[in-house]
Write a structure and sequence with these properties.
40% of the residues lie in helices and 18% in strands. The chain is of the alpha+beta class and 139 residues long. Bound molecules: zinc ion (3 copies).
Length: 139
């Protein structure tokens, strides 16, 4: 979905399209990687949209409710937000600069899930994986 379609969908639901809201949607579309509220704020500033923290959080809540973004916890105590994914994916977290990257895995745990499932008589619906280490810049 591109910007126009997303705005149109919001409009149809009767949601207002403020400048901030539009800018936030744009930031999430342009960004493949998860962003913290602070990072989000600075991206908004780059688009010449100056908003306070409260507004940013309110918009985050809105976009979460609309299932446009999701909140992720990556174990470093910081909440990050990313575009609601159409794919199953995982994250690389740099312990030095805290940057986060979304990654695909070719055969993600298909066999492991089957094994765990059978061994524990547990129906697995989802799993999440995080890899901690040093990014290209920090090595
Ligand atoms: Zn790094
Ligand atoms: Zn991701
Ligand atoms: Zn997986």
């Amino acid at each position: 979905m591109d910007l126009k379609n997303i705005f149109e969908a919001f409009r149809k639901k009767g949601h207002r399209l403020t400048r901030t809201r539009k800018a936030m949607v744009r930031v999430f579309l342009d960004n493949k990687e998860p962003l913290s509220a602070a990072e989000l704020n600075s991206r908004l500033k780059n688009l010449s949209v100056n908003v306070n923290k409260t507004t940013v959080y309110r918009e985050i809540d809105f976009l979460k409710k609309e299932l446009f973004i999701r909140e992720i916890e990556l174990g470093d105590g910081m909440k990050r937000y990313e575009r609601w994914p159409d794919d199953h994916h995982h994250h690389l977290i740099c312990v030095e600069c805290n940057s986060v990257k979304c990654i695909d895995m070719e055969h993600c745990l298909v066999n492991e899930e089957k094994y765990i499932s059978e061994k524990n008589n547990f129906k697995i619906m989802e799993h999440s994986l995080k890899f901690f280490g040093l990014c290209e810049n920090c090595q």
